Amino acid sequence: MEQKKEVKKHINSLLILLVIVVIVGGVFFYWYWMMSKNRVPETIDTSKEVERVLLKEDSVSKIGEELNKIETLDLETEFKEIDQDLNSL
Amino acid sequence: MRTLFFVLVIFSVFLVGGIAFSQTSTPRLFGVINDKQPIQAKDFQQKREEIKEQIKKMRMEYKKELREKREEMKTKMDELRGQLRESLRERKIDEKKSLIVERIYERINALNERLTNHYLNVLEKLETMLERIESRTAKAKMNGKDVREVELAIEKAHDAINKAILAVKNQAEKIYQPPQITNEENLKLEVGKIRKQLLDDLKAVEKMVKEARDTLRQAAVLLAQIPKVDELEVPTTTTPSN
């Protein structure tokens, strides 16, 4: 009888231990899941950083882009008003 | 004695030329960064900022000079306009035609001012681009890349920009003389002469500005041929190439 009580006590302890393990495991799993979830935006930030570096003011792509925008005014167009007056003389 | 005089003349020419060139030459990043010495990214950036500041200061000084010069030129132009009016009146040119001639003369000088301002703006942008190309080239060199061809192209671009700046400055300070008034029949011909003169002068300046832009573009093209050049930054320990 005494032995049976002892075994029951052990089983209860094991059950409690199991419950604790399950809870700790659950908490750990939840924490890991949350961490993985947080890692996603970090990946996006890194790619944004790469993009920022590529668009630096002294990057060749940016220089080329801005050089292509530099145009000189068309001389013939600029002389149009003078030519109109000249033709009316 | 004659030899000494000759030597002194030659020396003076070089001295004056040197001073004139140093006053018009754009400050260079290459001039302050010694690629044999390791440099921290922070110091590199600081040098760039200093150069940019010097370029900005030079531009502002010149703009101030030009504004003052133009004020003086206005007085001179008023005088010349008065002479033209007088000449038209003396030759008894039709009133309507006289007004047109005066307007053309006014427009000739105004167009010169407008276009030289435009060319100066273009050259300012090119100077900014040149500094950026130098910065990227210096970074590539510090990462052990062969940039000799780019450096040569940069030198060409630098010279071309400075020559163009000088040409635009000379053009900006020009005052066109009024047309010679002889009679009404020759009016179109005489006025056409100063129109042609301005067009020829502006074409010559425009050619130099375009050449400066093309040489700079060439430097950018050569720089772009360095693999992954945009990803290179100032290294923590520099490995300069020869």
Looking at this protein, list some descriptive labels.
heterodimer, A: 89 residues, mainly alpha, B: 242 residues, 76% helix, 0% strand
Describe the 3D structure:
- The complex is a heterodimer of chains A (89) and B (242).
- With 89 residues, chain A is mainly alpha-helical.
- In chain A, 84% of the residues lie in helices and 0% in strands.
- Chain A contains four helices and no strands.
- Chain A has helices at 2-54, 60-69, 75-78, 80-87.
- Chain A is rod-shaped and about 135 Å long.
- Chain B has 242 residues and is mainly alpha-helical.
- The longest helix of chain B is centred in the N-terminal third of the chain and has 50 residues, at 41-90.
- Chain B is elongated.
- Chain B starts with a helix and ends in an 18-residue tail after the last helix.
- Residues 10-23 of chain B have low confidence and may be disordered.
- The interface between A and B is medium-sized, with 26 and 41 residues.
Topology:
The complex is a heterodimer of chains A (89) and B (242).
Chain A: H1 2-54, H2 60-69, H3 75-78, H4 80-87
Chain B: H1 2-24, H2 41-90, H3 95-142, H4 148-172, H5 187-224
Largest beta sheet of chain A, briefly?
none
Helical amount of chain A: over 70%
Strand content of chain B: under 5%
Overall mean pLDDT of chain B stands at 87
Q: What are the segments of chain B in which pLDDT stays under 50 over at least 5 consecutive residues?
A: 10-23
Radius of gyration of chain A: 39 Å
